[in-house]
Amino acid sequence: MIKKLVAVLSFIIMFLVCTTINAQAFTTDKYDIQETVNKLNELVNFDCISLINRNELIGYRLSNFEMYTGEYKRNIIAARDNIIQGLNKVDLIENSTDFSDSEKEMQLRQIYNNTDYAISDVNSKTISYLMSLSKCMPTLTYQRFLHKFQDYYNDLNITDSKLLQK
Q: Are 120 and 75 in contact (CB under 8 A)?
């Protein structure tokens, strides 16, 4: 019980750190956006159950794990789709003759800011996902999953900082 309380408190602290990361620019051009989309696609297609022994989760625990994982992946897909919409607008703005250079720059900066916000939201959703899993998994299984997922998520390098530290 104490370990779960400490884990929840540490996730809350990481969440607060995550909200301060919003000011940091992750994307500065359309190639950064495309790279982010590729990383999010990889995250969506990753089989999270492969990180644990499936026999450790049975019945309602497995159902809850699948439910939380499905919700997490839907959130990542929504963020990815928002980023793709911004990427499509970048080409339109860059090739447009209707805007002055300063207007183009302002609109591009807004798209990059929206992309940065979506990336920060992915980090927040990841923390929420991991917190919700702590409720439905046995402690040892959760700790093993958490360490493996942290390694995987950090290796994706969606942001420049390692949001989930061991």
A: no
| Alpha helix segments (H runs only) across 96-138 | 101-136
**Residues 3, 9, 11: CA angle, nearest 5 degrees:** 105
Please write down the long-range contacts of 52-61, taking CB distance under 8 Å and 24 or more positions apart: 52/137, 52/141, 52/144, 52/145, 52/148, 53/141, 56/137, 56/138, 56/141, 57/137, 57/141, 60/136, 61/136, 61/137, 61/138
In degrees and rounded to multiples of 5, residue 28 shows phi and psi of: -130, -10
Distance CA 12, CA 30 (A): 32
Distance CA 145, CA 125 (A): 17
- Tell me if 76 sits within 8 A of 40, measured CB to CB: yes
0.90 exceeded by pTM:
no
d(CA 12, CA 38): 28
Q: For 112-139, what is each residue's pLDDT tens digit? A: 899 999 998 998 899 999 999 998 888 8
Q: What are the tens digits of pLDDT across the range 23-41?
A: 455 677 788 889 999 999 9
